[in-house]
């Protein structure tokens, strides 16, 4: 039987916990098989809990990285980080409690080991950084924690993974005996989608999603309210929020289902201007955000209503368009605007001038805090996603191209006429077109923009990037001997 592990909520859940800087994120990345969590020697880099699918040999599980365990119960950021870790512990089927064997057992290790012993779920003690003799004393000390024999590993070097496999296998086997995963055949037989056809229009969204979740990234400057928006959408305090700017560091992916539509929401670190980025952690966070934009399908750019469309917002929007992602703009904190009509008009005028590449980009005014207009975000993202997948029939496209050339021929070059002989759409996501012409190198960018703007209007393609490529040649589908 082929086992389907696409949906993380059906997997054995494994949380990695421990005091700050013991190597939790390093082990998380190794079990995930890719560098998802930011790693640095400074303690406290991880703040939110981060989830992904992990694998060790043939064991599959949902993997949860957590912030370092802190003894804080007030309104500070550290206390909010501890609450996120508590939620991870509550959700986990098994806990990997990690210590730094080279540093030895610290009072904080002893304190939290006491908490681990009181939990009604399996806890595996992990002695990390055990690659040298300097770790031996810490390993011997760890027996005093009362959590059984330590599993000695080096997350950085990949040593001891066989020992970790042996420790995990009994727990995963028991879990999957009680909670068998569906086969791929079973998944195919199910109706995984429950769409309102009238609301989502006539085209079926499942055919566009191809059985996978919609990749939706939330981006913007620091403190625009990205994490607050995601918490409001998923209806739980899934992400750390607060008045401090720059709380989010890693890009956090959250699997969510909105009225039957599977969505992967990606929260990202706020992007400041390059000249203002301070420190390597912020640099790594910015790189992580740029990567999230690159792999998203639709990007929601969040703006602060009090700081509308500054240069950095335009820079982010232009990057989204350059990467060919669908764009939706959400103006947050709209409940604080004194003159909504005037503010929105000024913003739309600025957008029309500064971002002509995606005329008609949808703009939603929201308040993540009061939940104003949040119901409009996902339908609008789906609408943009459909446009992003749109395909134009070749015959219709070429009749349109003839009309456009008759209405406005391309400028002459060296006294010779440039003629587009044929056009075809070579891909979607975003819509991309190849124009066959006699002099592609001499075709002005302004004329390609003329064609793109006409296509946007005539084929109803607002808000999505359109790519125009040129190639020298005749109509490749014309009969031989016929130009």
Features:
483 residues, alpha/beta, 6-stranded mixed beta sheet, elongated, disordered N terminus
Please, could you describe this protein's structure?
The chain is an alpha/beta fold and 483 residues long. The protein has 15 helices and 15 strands. The protein has helices at residues 24-32, 77-91, 107-117, 136-142, 161-178, 184-189, 197-200, 205-209, 226-234, 280-295, 311-322, 340-354, 377-388, 394-407, 445-458, and strands spanning 13-17, 50-56, 59-65, 94-100, 123-128, 151-152, 214-220, 252-258, 261-267, 298-304, 326-332, 363-365, 420-427, 432-437, 467-472. It has a six-stranded mixed β-sheet, with helices on both faces. Strands 8-9-7-10-11-12 form a six-stranded mixed β-sheet, with helices on both faces. The N and C termini lie far apart (55 Å).
Q: What does the secondary structure layout of this molecule look like, with pairings?
A:
Elements: E1 13-17, H1 24-32, E2 50-56, E3 59-65, H2 77-91, E4 94-100, H3 107-117, E5 123-128, H4 136-142, E6 151-152, H5 161-178, H6 184-189, H7 197-200, H8 205-209, E7 214-220, H9 226-234, E8 252-258, E9 261-267, H10 280-295, E10 298-304, H11 311-322, E11 326-332, H12 340-354, E12 363-365, H13 377-388, H14 394-407, E13 420-427, E14 432-437, H15 445-458, E15 467-472
Parallel strand pairs: 1-3, 1-4, 4-5, 5-6, 7-9, 7-10, 10-11, 11-12, 14-15
Antiparallel strand pairs: 2-3, 8-9, 13-14
């Amino acid at each position: 039987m082929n086992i389907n592990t696409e949906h993380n909520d059906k997997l054995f859940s494994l949380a990695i916990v421990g005091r700050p800087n013991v190597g939790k994120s390093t082990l998380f990345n190794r079990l995930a098989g890719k560098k998802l969590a930011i790693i640095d020697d400074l303690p406290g880099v991880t703040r939110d809990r981060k989830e992904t699918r992990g694998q060790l040999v043939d064991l599959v599980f949902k993997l949860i990285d957590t912030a370092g365990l802190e003894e804080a119960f007030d309104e500070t950021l550290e206390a909010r980080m501890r609450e996120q870790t508590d939620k991870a512990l509550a959700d986990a089927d098994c806990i990997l409690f990690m210590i730094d064997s080279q540093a030895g057992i610290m009072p904080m290790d002893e304190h939290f080991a006491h908490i681990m012993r009181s939990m009604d779920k399996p806890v595996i003690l992990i002695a990390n950084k055990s690659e040298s003799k300097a770790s031996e004393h810490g390993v011997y000390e760890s027996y005093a924690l009362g959590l059984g024999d330590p599993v000695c590993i080096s997350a950085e070097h990949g040593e001891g993974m066989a020992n970790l496999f042996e420790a995990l296998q009994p727990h995963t086997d028991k879990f999957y005996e009680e909670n068998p995963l569906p086969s791929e055949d079973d998944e195919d037989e199910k109706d995984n989608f429950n769409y309102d056809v009238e609301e989502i229009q006539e085209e079926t969204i499942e055919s566009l999603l191809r059985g996978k979740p919609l990749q939706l990234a939330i981006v913007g400057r620091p403190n625009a309210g990205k994490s607050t928006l995601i918490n409001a959408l998923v209806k739980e305090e899934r992400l750390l929020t607060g008045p401090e700017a720059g709380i989010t560091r890693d890009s956090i992916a959250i699997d969510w289902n909105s009225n039957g539509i599977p969505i992967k929401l990606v929260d990202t670190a706020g992007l400041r201007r390059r000249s203002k980025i301070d420190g390597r952690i912020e640099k790594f966070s910015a790189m992580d955000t740029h990567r999230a934009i690159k792999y998203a399908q639709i990007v929601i750019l969040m703006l602060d209503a009090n700081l509308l469309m500054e240069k950095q917002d335009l820079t982010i929007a232009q990057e989204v368009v350059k990467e060919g992602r669908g764009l939706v703009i959400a103006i947050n904190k709209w409940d604080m605007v004194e003159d909504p009509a005037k503010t929105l008009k000024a913003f739309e005028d600025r957008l029309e001038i500064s971002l002509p590449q995606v005329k008609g980009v949808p703009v939603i005014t929201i308040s993540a805090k009061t939940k104003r207009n949040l119901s409009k975000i996902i339908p609008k993202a789906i609408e943009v996603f459909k446009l992003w997948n749109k395909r134009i029939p070749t015959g219709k496209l070429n009749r349109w191209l003839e009309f456009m050339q008759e209405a406005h021929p391309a400028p002459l070059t060296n006294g010779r006429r440039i003629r587009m002989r044929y056009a075809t759409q070579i891909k979607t996501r975003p819509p991309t077109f190849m124009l066959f012409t006699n002099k592609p190198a001499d075709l002005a960018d302004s004329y390609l923009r003329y064609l793109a703007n006409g296509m946007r209007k005539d084929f109803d393609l607002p808000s999505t990037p359109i790519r125009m490529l040129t190639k020298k040649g005749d109509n490749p589908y014309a009969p031989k001997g016929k130009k």
